[in-house]
Amino acid sequence: MNDSKIIDVANRAKVSVATVSRVLNRSELVSEKTKKRVLEAIQEMNYTPNAMAKNLRSKKTMKIGVVVADIEVSYFAEIIKGVENMANSLDYNVIICDAQNKKQKELEYASLLQNRTVDGMIFVTPEMTNKEIIGLVEDGYSVGVIGRNIDHEQIPCAFTDNVKLARDVVNHLIEQGHERIAFLSGYADAIDSYERLEGYMKALRDAGMPFIPDLIDNGDFNEDGGYRSFMRLREKNTDFTAIFTANDEMALGVYKACKQLSIQVPQHLAVVGVDNIRLTKYITPRLSTVDQPKYTMGALLAEKLIDQMNNNEFKDKRIFKVESKLLIRESSIFKRNHENGSQAALQ
């Protein structure tokens, strides 16, 4: 009996499980060089595709998978809740997959589709490329995406306008009198990072203010990263009076650093985050943030994906662009007075 598994073939060929599947399904998205390497690995390992799994393609598991970048980040909890509640109401169960901020883990979780462990899968702010996600769909698998709009008629997407929400934040800080505003991005490859950076830069440009690279740092979307990122900004000796963090987790790290350094928020430093996680309402001062309808995005995507796998009654609706809202709280409403220096720049 051949005990080789598709993941073993992928490891032998040094490719993803999705690539092996595409080769087996004769997809044109795989280069001839890669295809040759995969076929050689299949032959060397005497691998035979699971016939039972193929036969199950027309049957249903009544399960969908949800792949998130980091299960510890609060942002994903509300999305998962929305997915799970909607899926359960439609008699589907949910398998939650933590990619641990690794693209390779996302690709490995795709094998749940290929092995028919789940009927469909939702990727939340994935690091996988559009081409890789489209490849799964063109291989016959049902996939939805939250946090990105992919131009493909069979891929339902739910997302917010990251550029707009970032511009709203920066415009608010400019209205408060801030001229030097720092920005903490998340993972370098995350679409949320560079779209929010784009919005930050556009708001500065529209206000006739210079873009200063030394005011930008990467906090990896988590509290510890936000803390370290803020400390790096301080070490640069670049003065700033406000900081916009690309999510609330990093803002919590900024709060921690400010407490250690006796920096008062908002008197010495205005802070604004994104996501409106529960804790932001209970810390002191309450954090200004951008509320994204996370639960709604999860519920919408689950409903659409399950419908698409069944009756497809909502076939004319694929894209769900949901509105975000800036919530102004105490952490950013201290008006900077340039004349009397009521708010000193951080140096």
The largest sheet is: 6 strands, parallel
* Assigned CATH class of the largest domain: Alpha Beta
- The domain count comes to 3
Query: What's the total number of strands?
Result: 12
CA-atom Rg in angstroms: 23 Å
Descriptive account of the structure:
With about 350 residues, the chain is of the alpha/beta class. It has a 6-stranded parallel sheet, sandwiched between helices. It has a 4-stranded parallel sheet with strand order 7-6-8-9, sandwiched between helices. A two-stranded antiparallel sheet has the order 10-12. Helix 1 packs across helix 3. Helix content is about 40%, strand content about 15%. The radius of gyration is 23 Å and the shape is elongated. The protein has 3 domains: about 1-50, 434 Repressor (Amino-terminal Domain); about 60-155 and about 295-325, Response regulator (Rossmann fold), CATH 3.40.50.2300; about 160-290 and about 330, Response regulator (Rossmann fold, 3-Layer(aba) Sandwich), CATH 3.40.50. The protein is built from 13 helices and 12 strands.
Give the SSE map:
Layout: H1 6-13, H2 17-24, H3 32-44, H4 51-55, E1 63-68, H5 74-89, E2 93-98, H6 103-109, H7 111-114, E3 120-124, H8 130-138, E4 142-146, E5 157-159, H9 162-175, E6 181-185, H10 191-206, E7 216-218, H11 223-235, E8 242-245, H12 248-260, E9 270-272, E10 289-291, H13 294-309, E11 319-321, E12 325-327
Parallel strand pairs: 1-2, 1-3, 3-4, 4-5, 5-11, 6-7, 6-8, 8-9
Antiparallel strand pairs: 10-12
